[in-house]
Amino acid sequence: MQSYWMQNDGEKANIELREIEVPKPAADQILIRVRAAGLNRGEFILGHGLHQSGSAKQIGMEAAGEVVACGEQITEFKVGDRVMGRCPGAFAEFALIPGREALLMPPSLTWEQAAAVPLTSMVVFDMLVVQGQLKAGEWVLIPGVSSGVGVTALAMAKALGAKVIGTSGSQSKLDQLKPLGLDLGICTRLPNFYNAVMQATNDKGVDLVVNTVGGSVFAECIRALAFQGRLATVGYVDGVLKAEMDIEALHAKRLKLFGVSNKFRNADQRAESTPIFKKQILPLMAQGKCLPMVYQVYPFNQLLEAKALMDSSQHLGKIVLAGL
Predict the structure, then answer these.
(1) Which residues contact 109 (CB under 8 A, 6 or more apart)?
(2) Quick check: 212 and 235 in contact, CB under 8 A?
(3) What are phi and psi of 185, to 5 degrees?
(4) Is the Cβ–Cβ distance between 187 and 145 less than 8 Å?
(5) Where is average pLDDT lowest: 43-47, 284-288, 302-306?
(6) Rounded to 10 degrees, what is the CA torsion of 59, 60, 61, 62?
(7) Could you tell me which residues come within 8 angstroms of residue 318 by beta carbon, excluding any fewer than 6 positions away?
(8) Which structural domains are found in the chain, ordered by start?
(9) Cα distances (angstroms) measured from residue 171 to each of 175, 234, 312
(10) Euclidean distance between CA atoms 5 and 261, whole angstroms
């Protein structure tokens, strides 16, 4: 089968298409014929530490497809089922998904929509619900709301009854997010949104921040938090990995700061929230709520072109690679 690999020399990465054997599922895995796979910026950033220097590995982290084989311990799925899930090596003709992380696709989802769910939506669920403890009626601030994570966080937060403020350097992108329920769009790439946030929230501040941008906006996010607010750090596309923190605000406002990453989690930890996600979010998706926004779909042989679009930051939502 064909599979994309990335070779890392510590300074740059080379992506190539290789011919390898079709993998065989272990007892607790399912093998799928990949119909679509979602792109995620983090796996291509060498500084994230997902690729060791001097190594080559299969790439792709989430996919949707048809089950073609099941391990002997798999009882929930059968050959022919339409599933989606987090899986290593998703940019390939076939991929393995751990059975406990596989999700049956709601019938209303397309392959492309389903491929954009497993990683991004599960990460957003972790931020908003598992760690963020978001409640209906609360305010959420999403710097970089037009990113894949940002758009998904907007849609899920609205489905959970929250009010959402988002920032973007593009007014056009903010306008396109209005139909998803964006309550306030602030056109900026700078850490200068505090006043607008306070005005929108009657000087209360926001209850939860989803920081997809990084250190350049960290201090402003702290300023914008309400009493007992929570701040989730999920990315740093700005490349700024250190920031000044107002410890007095952290102390006086009883703030909670947390990171959202699977980098050091083991298989058990990664799968912990899957049953809750199935119960709470999949029914909403079946109703057409909190669906991922798919910006563009590329054919399998155009991964480099898809990555170039992602690197340009001109997209709105998710970019997806179609299966062979």
Answers:
(1) 64, 84, 117, 285, 291
(2) yes
(3) -110, 130
(4) no
(5) 43-47
(6) -160
(7) 38, 39, 116, 120, 148, 151, 152, 292, 293, 294, 295
(8) 2-117+292-322 (3.90.180.10), 121-259 (3.90.180.10)
(9) 6, 23, 17
(10) 22
**What whole-number distance in Å separates Cα of residue 244 and Cα of residue 82?**
47
* Measured CA distances, 206 to 155, 199, 203, 220 (Å): 17, 11, 9, 12
Give the integer Cα–Cα distance in Å for 56 and 43.
13
| Residue 167 β-bridge partners | 143, 186
Spatial distance between the Cα atoms of 191 and 54, rounded to a whole number of angstroms: 37
Q: Would strands 29-38 and 94-98 be described as parallel, antiparallel, or unpaired?
A: antiparallel
Residue 54's H or E segment, with its range, is none
Looking at residue 91, what is its pLDDT?
Answer: 97
> What's the pLDDT score for residue 10?
63
225-275 pLDDT tens trace: 999 999 999 988 899 999 999 999 999 999 999 999 888 989 889 889 999
Burial (CB < 10 A; 0-12, 13-18, 19+), residue 269, is exposed
Using the predicted structure, report yes or no on whether residue 49 has a pLDDT greater than 50.
Answer: no
Compute the Cα dihedral for 80, 81, 87, 90 and give only its sign: positive
Query: pLDDT for 171-186, tens place per residue?
Result: 999 999 999 999 999 9
* pLDDT tens, position by position, 309-322: 998 888 898 999 99
- Pair 154, 136: CB distance under 8 Å: no
Q: What is the mean pLDDT of the chain?
A: 93
Q: How far is CA 288 from CA 76, 193, 254, in A?
A: 24, 32, 36
User: What is the distance of C-alpha 63 from the center of its chain?
Assistant: 13
Question: Which residues are 58's β-sheet partners?
Answer: 5
- pTM (two decimals): 0.88
297: part of which helix (H) or strand (E)?
strand 294-298
